[in-house]
Design brief:
Blueprint lengths: L3 E9 L10 E2 L4 E6 L2 E6 L5 E5 L5 E9 L5 E8 L3 E6 L7 E6 L8 E6 L5 E6 L5 E6 L4 E7 L7 E7 L2 E9 L2 E8 L2 E4 L10 E6 L4 E6 L3 E6 L2 E7 L8 H10 L31 E4 L2 E5 L4 E7 L6 E8 L17 E6 L5 E6 L4 E5 H6 L5 E2 L1 E2 L9 E6 L5 E6 L3 E6 L4 E7 L4 E6 L5 E6 L3 E6 L4 E7 L7 E3 L5 E6 L2 E6 L5 E5 L6 E6 L5 E6 L3 E6 L5 E6 L5 E6 L6 E5 L3 E6 L2 E7 L5 E6 L5 E6 L3 E6 L8 E5 L5 E6 L5 E6 L4 E8 L21 H151 L2 H160 L1 H61 L5 H15 L2 H88 L7 H41 L14
Parallel strand pairs: 25-29
Antiparallel strand pairs: 1-57, 2-3, 3-4, 4-5, 6-7, 7-8, 8-9, 10-11, 11-12, 12-13, 14-15, 15-16, 16-17, 18-19, 19-20, 20-21, 22-23, 23-24, 24-25, 26-27, 27-28, 28-30, 31-32, 32-33, 33-34, 35-36, 36-37, 37-38, 39-40, 40-41, 41-42, 43-44, 44-45, 45-46, 47-48, 48-49, 49-50, 51-52, 52-53, 53-54, ...
Helix pairs in contact: 3-4, 5-6, 5-7, 7-8
GO cellular component, one term: axoneme
Protein name: Cilia- and flagella-associated protein 57
Keywords: Cell projection, Coiled coil, Cytoplasm, Cytoskeleton, Repeat, WD repeat
């Protein structure tokens, strides 16, 4: 039997906390960490390939980096000794190439890495406390250099290579921005800036000299050659203070003349909280500019401007709100962690701190200038917290998961997509899918909820009071479900929702439950070290196993329900059967957290607290017979095997869902017992269906309207096009005529030009041939003469050279002979003198002789030199003459070649003219073709015109039909208007009544009409009462008749009974029947009784119904009229109250005016007495007179107003006295 193994198939999730956690491998493939693996995900085809992380004492991934040529991937992992592993991505399995470490330097982790532009070197920034930067030649695992980049209090956030230079490195962090250069085997700092106040979160290289860095306060600082040039803000708020910023930059020892502060840069207001400043957590460059994060959920695109060294913000891209969340704005508050642009710069991808991946096409973002650009999910929405629940169903390929991020998600493991997801107010602890896949059970902190899985939503339809349900499970049949409440297990019915059983027995919290295949058993384990097997029919414990030293975390049961497997905190796997632990398998000091067994019973899968998954062969052996797989970066929380044994599903505390393919060692899938066909049914509520149908109907009507509108538009367009066709046809006809005339003109011109051109060509050819012959003859003569001169000069130079050489030889021979003769002569003389003279004289003579000898030698040498110079000069002159002659011959040759070139040029011109002639002929042919084409086009246009005319005829027919249809519709509209007119008249009457009621003058007439109506109604009531009395009398008469008829019937019965006594005597019976007939039956009764009674009855019922209807309508009318009277009385009373108050106010004003007038009069009298003298000016008197007249006029107006109000009050009182009293409200007392 082949052993069973598991293979990673698909994973949902993103590992947070990893620096640079997404990068592009090619245009369609991205790489990101998930669990303890790196995933190569193809965006278009949606397949995944896995790069497994190392399992050797690793504490998790810290950072990723991809080389410039996209071939190598570096993964740093934390551990007792931090390592960097380089993978070859071009290899099929992404094989491991090299493992780098800090060597002898103790390094726990590498927080940031980067490849050089040529991918040969790698830098890695070690973490605290040393913060050492390593520079490797990674293929040889050789540390080229290392340097300490910062102190223990200033952490480093990012390191990078210059994209054009392998030796220059940029390091940024909290208060750190340094450039290093590798030279002479060491890394040396090349810039020195004091930037302690800035926390640099990220940076990117824009060119060989320029770096842009983003800070925690939302500032973008641009450095060139290590010096700060200018800064700006990612926000778009206007207020900017240039002076403060320049002062701050001078404190940082930056040259003021090199600073160009961007106008869009902003300064934060004094009262703004620093926590609300947008942090530039990620930044990346591309050919047009750069993209950077600008606070929660926002990315800004900056592009280069035409001005040098400037950038402007062109686009702002946001994360959209999540419609499936209870608080949609939470999605917009995610912080960007990494930004990455595809190699062709088509797509921007970002990862967030909540483990989500978003993407956007940059071209679409640029096109939608007027609208807000939004990110879309790169693949799906992932869990962002610990996954606490996992469940599957039988009838559908669905997976349900719940998490502490308050969400429940439904995945499809066949298509590898997210089907549904919904966020709730509370945390979800457990989840269970119904076997049908249509219902889901979710345990929240406050309640256990049973929900429907609709087509696009998850809706609650039943709640159970089970608080903090950490475990729940449906039975295999789906008719029951179990829910854990602390140490209790409740079993409910799925159909009636009744609590069937309560399983009590555990002393600690229950951590896992599992149903047997036939649903007759339920196995549970808890923190109290107990494993119980319950009978689900009578709630009895069938078996138990208690081990208090172990706190169990997971349990499963074999397919035959005879064996139980449990795992817990004692790092062992226990096989329990018949209340006994048959076997314990140690786990190498690793705690198992969950366990699952395949339906075939051949293999057990166990999840551990370090995130690994183990495949353990069954039956169990005492030896360590398992295969371990690195799966998650956190403890495995739940594990499930699908019902067909094809997939293993695991979830973990790292928020990832991992789907494993279960295969044998040969790579084949396991054989299924039977093929499973999944259901395709879905749930939808009636209201949603009706709403969708309504929307469909509305859309259909809209489509019909659009069709009609389009047809109308088409008709209009056809008419316009017909007009245009007519215009164009006329225009084209005119153009054709003009072209014909032009063509004729061009033909005549062409013929003329051809003739003139032929004449010119003939003349040019003749002239050229003559000139060519003349040039050839003259040049040949000149060449012959020059050649002869050259021969003569060459002979002369040879003869002269030979003569000079002979003369030189002779001179040298004569010089040698004269020297010998002179030496012999002087030697003989010297001997004679030596003999003749004494010793002193001989010495003197020897000296003299030597001097004379020297002088003679010098004179001979000088003469020889002069002769040599003389002859060399002559030789040089001859040589120069020879050279000049050679130059002249060269000039002649050049002239000859230039003449030859002229001849060739003329030939070329002749050829060009021939080509032009051919071109002109071609143009003529093309024009003829154009004429033919235009004729064809005219013919086609005529045909199209005929087609259009046919179309117009058809459309006219349709128009006639539509006019008929319009006539019918107009008739219907008229009928509808006739129906509407009475209602409009009623509305007008109502409006008139309202207007009449609004005016006080018409109210009295209306009241009279109401009184008349009341009297009329009283008369109607009296008439109806009389009619009612008459009907009562008739009813009594009818009742009396009924009683008489009943007495008659009774008598007839007794007589008939007596007659029946003669049943044996036919003659007596016949006689008695005749007597009965003669006594009880009359001829008129026989004829009229049936018809009369029926008519009376019908008339009676009709009259009665008519009277009852009249009475009911009169009652309603009376009630309505009384209500109208009451409201009118209240309204009039309120108006009276307001008028009386107004009268009182006016009376008070009148009193005040009277007192003022009295005061004015008294004052005037006093003034008259005092100012009776003659020196009073005329102007003062006029003023007083005017004042007195004004006062009199005001008093008169007040009196008129008071009189009018009195009249109005008397009229109101009279009206009020005519009406019956409606309420006991008293008017306020008039104050005089």
């Amino acid at each position: 039997m082949a052993s069973i193994v598991a293979q990673c198939h698909y994973i949902f999730g993103l590992r947070t906390g990893v620096i640079n956690n997404i990068c592009y491998f090619d245009e369609q493939t991205v790489i990101f960490p998930c669990g303890n693996n790196c995933v190569r995900y193809n965006i278009d085809q949606r397949w995944q390939r896995f790069i497994p992380g190392s399992t050797e004492k690793s504490q998790g991934m810290q950072a990723l980096a991809i080389s410039a040529n996209r071939r190598y991937l570096a993964v740093s992992e934390r551990g007792e000794k931090g390592t960097i592993t380089v993978y070859d991505l071009q290899h099929e399995q992404s094989r491991k190439r090299k493992v780098l470490s800090g060597g002898e330097v103790p390094v726990l982790e590498f927080v940031s890495m980067a490849f050089s532009p040529d991918s040969k070197y790698l830098i890695g920034q070690a973490g605290a406390p040393d913060w050492t930067l390593f520079y490797w030649m990674w293929e040889k695992q050789k540390v080229m250099a290392s340097v300490k980049t910062t102190g223990s209090t200033n952490p480093i956030n990012q390191v990078s290579f210059n994209p054009q230079d392998n030796t220059q490195i940029c390091v940024s962090g909290n208060g750190v921005f340094k450039l290093f250069r590798y030279a002479e085997g060491a890394l040396k700092q090349s810039n020195f800036l004091k930037l302690e106040s800035q926390n640099f979160m990220s940076h990117t290289w824009m060119s060989e000299e320029r770096v842009i860095a983003g800070t925690e306060t939302g500032r973008l600082l641009v450095f060139e050659s290590g010096d700060l040039r200018w800064e700006m803000s990612v926000t778009t708020k206007p207020a900017t203070q240039e002076a403060d910023r320049s002062d701050r930059m001078t404190d940082q020892s930056v040259n003021q003349s090199n600073i160009f502060v961007l106008l869009s840069s902003t300064a934060k207001s004094e009262g703004a909280a620093p926590a609300r400043m947008p942090r530039v957590t990620a930044i990346t460059s591309y050919s047009k500019g750069f993209a950077c994060s600008a606070g929660p959920g926002t990315v800004c695109l900056f592009e280069k401007t035409e001005e040098k060294d400037n950038y402007r913000k062109t686009r702002e891209i946001r994360i959209p709100a999540d419609p499936c969340s209870n608080e949609p704005s939470h999605a917009e508050q995610q912080e960007m962690v990494t930004l990455c642009i595809s190699p062709s710069e088509e797509t921007l991808v970002t990862s967030t701190d909540r483990g989500q991946l978003y993407s956007i096409t940059l071209s679409s973002a640029e096109m939608s200038k007027g609208e807000q650009a939004h990110f879309e999910f790169l693949s799906h929405s992932f869990h962002s917290n610990i996954i606490t629940g996992l469940s599957i169903c039988i009838r559908k390929p669905l997976i349900a998961t719940c998490s502490l991020d308050h969400s429940v998600r439904i995945w499809n493991f066949e298509t590898n997509v997210l089907e549904l997801h919904k966020e709730f107010q509370e945390e979800a602890f457990s989840v269970a899918l119904h076997p049908s896949g249509l219902f889901i059970l979710v345990g929240f902190s406050d309640k256990l909820r049973l929900m429907n899985l609709l087509i696009d939503d998850v809706r609650t339809f039943k709640e159970f009071t089970v608080r903090g349900c950490r475990e729940c499970a449906f039975s295999h049949g789906g008719h029951m479900f179990a829910a854990v409440n602390g140490n209790l297990i409740h079993i409910y019915s799925s159909t009636t929702f009744d609590n069937l059983l309560n399983l009590k027995g555990h002393n600690g919290k229950v951590r896992a439950i599992v149903w047997s295949t036939d649903d007759s058993r339920l196995v549970s384990c808890g923190m109290d070290g107990a494993v119980y097997e319950w009978n689900t029919l009578n709630s009895k414990r069938e078996s138990e196993s208690v081990l208090k030293s172990c706190s169990y975390t997971g349990v499963t049961i074999s397919p035959d329900a005879k064996t139980i497997f449990a795992v817990g905190t004692d790092c062992t796997l226990k096989e329990i059967q018949d209340c006994q632990i048959l076997r314990e398998v140690a786990a190498d000091d690793v705690a198992y957290t969950t366990i699952a067994m395949s339906r075939s019973g051949r293999v057990l899968f166990a999840g551990t607290s370090i995130g690994t998954v183990r495949a353990i062969k069954y039956p169990l052996s005492t030896q360590k017979d398992w295969i371990e797989y690195q799966a998650h970066s956190g403890a495995v929380t739940k594990m499930v095997i699908t019902f067909d044994d094809q997939y293993l599903l695991t979830v973990s505390e790292d928020g990832c869902l991992l789907i494993w393919k279960i295969i044998d060692k040969e790579g084949r899938s396991l054989k299924r017992d039977k093929d499973i066909t999944y259901a395709e049914e879905i749930l939808i509520t009636k209201s949603d269906l009706e709403e969708k149908n309504q929307i469909m109907m509305e859309l259909k009507t809209r489509v019909e309207e659009l069709k009609m509108e389009n047809e109308y538009q088409l008709r209009l367009k056809d008419m316009n096009y017909n007009e245009k066709i007519k215009d164009l046809s006329e225009k084209f006809v005119q153009e054709i005529e003009s072209l014909k005339t032009k063509n004729q003109v061009l033909k005549t011109e062409k013929e003329k030009q051809e003739l003139s051109h032929q004449e010119v060509m003939r003349e040019v050819v003749e002239k050229h041939s003559r000139e060519q012959q003349d040039f050839e003859s003259t040049s040949n003569q000149k060449l012959m003469l020059e050649y002869e001169k050259y021969q003569e000069l060459q002979l002369k130079s040879q003869l002269m050279q030979e003569g000079y050489e002979r003369q030189l030889q002779a001179m040298e021979d004569s010089k040698g002979r004269t020297l010998e003769e002179l030496t012999l002569f002087y030697e003989a003389k010297l001997q004679e003198k030596m003999l003749m003279l004494g010793q002193d004289e001989s010495r003197q003579q020897v000296r003299e002789f030597e001097e004379s000898k020297k002088q003679m030698e010098e004179d001979g040498d000088r003469e020889i030199q002069d002769i040599r110079i003389k002859y060399e000069r002559k030789l040089r002159v001859e040589h120069e003459i020879n050279l000049r002659l050679k130059g002249e011959t060269g000039v002649m040759r050049k002239k000859f070649s230039s003449l030859q070139k002229d001849i060739d040029d003329r030939n070329v011109e002749i050829e060009k003219l021939r080509v032009e002639l051919q071109k002109l002929r071609g143009v003529i042919k093309s024009l003829e073709k154009d004429i033919l084409g235009l004729k064809k086009e005219i013919q086609e246009r005529d045909e199209t015109i005929q087609d259009k005319e046919k179309r117009i005829y058809d459309l006219k027919k349709k128009n006639q039909e539509l006019e008929k249809f319009k006539f019918v519709l107009d008739y219907k509209i008229k009928e509808l208007k006739k129906q509407i007119e009475p209602r409009e008249n009623d509305i007008k009457e109502m409006k008139e009544q309202i207007q009449e009621w609004s005016s006080v003058g018409r109210m009295e007439g209306e009241l009279d009409q109401v009184h008349k109506r009341n009297t009329q109604l009283e008369l109607n009531i009296t008439e109806l009462r009389l009619k009612l009395k008459a009907t009562d009398k008739e009813m009594h008469k009818e009742m009396q008749r009924v009683r008489d008829v009943e007495a008659l019937v009774l008598r007839f019965r007794t007589d008939l009974h007596n007659c029946v006594g003669f049943i044996q005597e036919p003659k007596k019976l016949k006689d008695s029947v005749r007597e009965l007939y003669a006594h009880y039956v009359q001829q008129s009764d026989v004829v009229d009784i049936v018809g009369v009674d029926a008519d009376i009855q019908r008339e009676y019922s009709r009259q009665r119904e008519h009277l009852e209807r009249n009475v009911a309508s009169l009652k309603r009318k009376l009630a309505k009229d009384t209500e109208v009277h009451r409201t009118d009385n209240v309204k009039i009373m309120k108006e009276n109250v307001s008028l009386i108050k107004e009268i009182n106010d006016l009376r008070q004003e009148l009193r005040l005016v009277r007192t003022q007038v009295h005061d004015y009069k008294s004052q005037m009298g006093i003034n008259k007495k005092k100012l009776s003298s003659s020196d009073l000016t005329g102007g003062g008197l006029v003023a007083r007179l005017n004042f007195e007249e004004e006062a009199e006029r005001i008093i008169q107006l007040q009196r008129v107003e008071i009189q009018r109000l009195k009249m109005q009050i008397q009229g109101q009182v009279q009206v009020h006295s005519l009406r019956p009293p409606s309420s006991s409200t008293k008017l306020p007392v008039l104050t005089t």
